[in-house]
Amino acid sequence: METPNISSSSFLWYFIRFLVLVCLILCSLETCFTLEESDVKSHLGLEYSHTVQVKSLLPATTCSPSTQGHDKKASVLKVVHKHGPCSHFNQSHKENAPTHTQILEQDQARVNSIHSRRNPKKAIDRRGQRQRDSTTVPALSGSTVGAADYIVTVGLGTPKKQLSLTFDTGSDLTWTQCRPCIRPCYKQVDPIFDPSVSSSYANVSCNSVVCSQLKSGTGYAPACATSTCVYTTTYGDGSISVGFFAKETITLTSTDVFDGFLFGCGKVNQGLFRGSAGLLGLGRDSISFVEQTAAKYGRFFSYCLPSTSSSTGFLSFGREKRGRASKGVKFTRLATLPQKEYSSLYGINLVGITVGGRKLPISTSVFKTSGTIIDSGTVITRLPPQAYSALRAAFQQGMKSYPRAPAISILDTCYDFSSYETVTIPKIAISFKGGLTLDLDGTGIIYPVTASQACLAFAANKNDSDIAVFGNVQQLKFEVVYDVDKGKLGFASGGCL
Prior knowledge:
Layout: H1 8-44, E1 49-53, H2 54-57, E2 77-81, H3 88-92, H4 100-115, E3 135-137, E4 139-141, E5 150-156, E6 161-168, E7 175-177, E8 202-203, H5 209-212, H6 214-218, E9 223-225, E10 228-234, E11 240-253, E12 256-270, E13 278-281, H7 289-292, H8 294-297, E14 300-304, E15 312-317, E16 330-335, E17 346-348, E18 350-355, E19 358-359, H9 364-370, E20 372-374, E21 381-383, H10 385-398, E22 404-405, E23 414-415, E24 422-426, E25 428-432, E26 436-439, E27 446-450, E28 453-456, E29 458-460, E30 468-470, E31 478-483, E32 488-493
């Protein structure tokens, strides 16, 4: 039998066809595998959920300082949880940390007082409220979960005395306890400031222009005692500070020193201050730290709150010394709030919420009616009732495979994770005007009381007309950037991990 005669050109033609066929098969298989993986992922909803280790939600007992955040070349104020293992409060202050019920009840008192600003008959809460030089300061949180009290350490007086102050974007007046107290001083970790041993201390007179500015910054008209200006400031939980309005030198770092800084020298101080020496006011009024240091820092600051009670964060002032995450910052415009009572707060335009990849059917008029502020001192984000109801229903639908747990205080949607090592929770994204959308981390969605009681970290206001509040739990793991001069608020993910 004759062997077929195949020319070299024919062989080459068959060989090319064979190679093309093989390539098509391989490409087809690869596509098939890709589609199959995508289909599985989509079917499971993994792109719209977080898988979280339950133990990662609970507080640790040892300090794990942040490995990223501020530029090491920057002057930095460190931020920590007051009762966490990174805080000197934890070693030297014997007072027990507040319970979760106490934290949430005090948080509601703060929000109530913010809402009461529109009613002058109710108490006003001010606690819960070109190239330039810059500095950065670390921050601490006031309880194991960061309830309203994030602490930074600054120097006051000449020679300077180190004081741990709660920093608060919802307040304007900076104050500290001063010796001698007219009533017994409350216990604080740092030695109480004594103005008599400072060469740079001076009281403000009653007839001075700056004394008259107290009313807009505290909500109370100033009083007068022996020709000295007297301030009063109260808080939603019933805490109060009364004392002399004065000038003093305040020191953030060796190169960031401010003479003639206006502050309150507290003589009568009562309430739930839990060992801090006072408060650093970061609001928008003329007496706030932000305004008093505007010539140096340009009304620009940012912070990253500790992502857990066992980690650290920072508070930074000035454009030049910003966190490592700042290059990825995305901005929204600061909103002008129509209510003059809220003029010193930081307004933002919340426009929508997405749960598990689905945008909730909430009319934008719901958020326009209430308005929204961002507040470092409020723990749990408060939403208009209509918005919260939609969020809760969608979240419950995504969590229906987990056993429910009892509600606690303002948190009505809780689950028992005690039998699980990991849990899968729906992703939640918050959208602001201008195209900014924040994809919340699991720590910004779940408030862990215990493994057997982990709750949705949102709550409803009483009325749709009450102003919404973007709280500090939802700010975790973001660097939050306040560019007040340019009217912008920004967020950068991974601010301090």
